[in-house]
Amino acid sequence: MKIELVNPAQKLLNKFGQYSPPYGLAYIGTLLKERSIEVEIIDEAVGDKPKYKCNFAIITSTTSTIKRAYSISMSYLNKGIPTIIGGVHVSSIVNTHFKDELKGVSTSIIIGPIENIIDQLINDMNSFSLKKCYVGTPVCELKSPDPIWNENKYFTYPIQSSVGCPFNCDFCAVNMVYGGLRMKNNDLVLSEIQKASKTIIFLDDNLYASPNTSKILFGRVKEEIGYKPWGGLCSLNVYKDEKLLKLFSETGCTCINIGFETLDPKKLDSVKKRNRAEEYANCVKTLHDHGILVYTGFISFPDDDEATLKNLSEFLNYTEADLFHYDVLTPFPGTPLFEKLEKNMEILDYDWSNYDFNHAVIKHKIWTTEEWEQNVENFYKENIPSQDSIPLKLSQNMSFTNPSLSLEIWQKLASYLMGTF
Ligand code: SF4
């Protein structure tokens, strides 16, 4: 039996897909291969096209790629190949009034994780008796995928040591999707790191979700592997953990992405983000003191105005934050934010392909949708860091012993953000 595993592309195609291989599909592919099934990953984000040379297709989805997932599924069905659609979006809408959109778009759907239903799924594939719906539940033990993607097509090597987060911000879907915080056995993580051939990107939603586990992990990386360039996401409070930052720096951490979201404490409260904005500048400085670049994440809120943009611009200049993203507030179905905005009739656009952080899908208090999107785009153009700043900062990092890999990825990321990629 052969299965094509398909990652649909976003509407706004860019080369950012090359940033990281589809780890989730590789995970499913590994489980299938362990059961003697031939698999092939088709990643539209790097230009792959469905081959239709298989017995079944499994298609993953996010909210912004679900329409493309439906269309790919229909193309397989039209050729007589049964399809199974899973992923974040399917699991997010199954208990909402949007669930009817799943009818007739595929042979089956998978809700939740696949581990404890995979054997049943394979049995049903073998007997050509696929059910309409399979419901998986989170398993305690996270496993490691084999790197079955084509390494030449990607700039980085993905690794995941945990899923979920101890916080519950109103706009965030990670705990809804993963069923809470779960850690992978450190032996498995170390073996993934050993295999990494390029700059590592940790896919963890929050590498500081369990500080003690992170200290044990990176202590072992230091002792057993040494220095390999990597980046990842952490919550703000990581900057107060001197011991962990030292381990980060010693093991090759070149960049940490932190969701600051906004400089306004009231807006932080409004989405239940437990940050203290007055700590941001100190956070950036502390990470810089450890030779770590800071990739700050900000949200464009529906009551942001000219003064907000001016303050944010001054903050980025003053702190010398290295990279930033400024995403239009996007409510994903199933999250508390979505429920609140829908109840208040503030959602303007239900075209899921626009739920990509670049399009405004909710009402702004003062700007039209077009003005909002244009103001965000202008903010990027006016505030993006200079092309030279990243290599300069990396060269100033004294612990940076193997610059070529990380330099390549961070230059590419900076170029992408500048729209010159
Ligand atoms: S801290 Fe980050 S990962 Fe955790 S719930 Fe908030 S947005 Fe999600």
Written account of the structure:
By secondary structure, this protein is an alpha/beta fold. It folds into two domains: 2-135, Rossmann fold (3-Layer(aba) Sandwich); 155-416, pyruvate-formate lyase- activating enzyme (Alpha-Beta Horseshoe), CATH 3.80.30. Helices cover 37% and strands 16% of the residues. The protein contains 15 helices and 14 strands. The strands form three sheets. Strands 2-1-3-4-5-6 form a six-stranded parallel β-sheet, sandwiched between helices. The chain has a six-stranded parallel β-sheet with strand order 7-10-11-12-13-14, with helices on both faces. The structure holds iron/sulfur cluster. Iron/sulfur cluster binds next to loops.
Whole-number tally of structural domains: 2
Amount of beta strand:
15-25%
CATH superfamily membership of the largest domain = tm_1862 like domain
Based on DSSP secondary structure assignment, what is the total number of beta strands?
14
What order do the helices and strands follow?
EHEEHEHEHEEEHEHEHEHEHHEHEHHHH
Radius of gyration: 21 Å
| Helix vs. strand class | alpha/beta
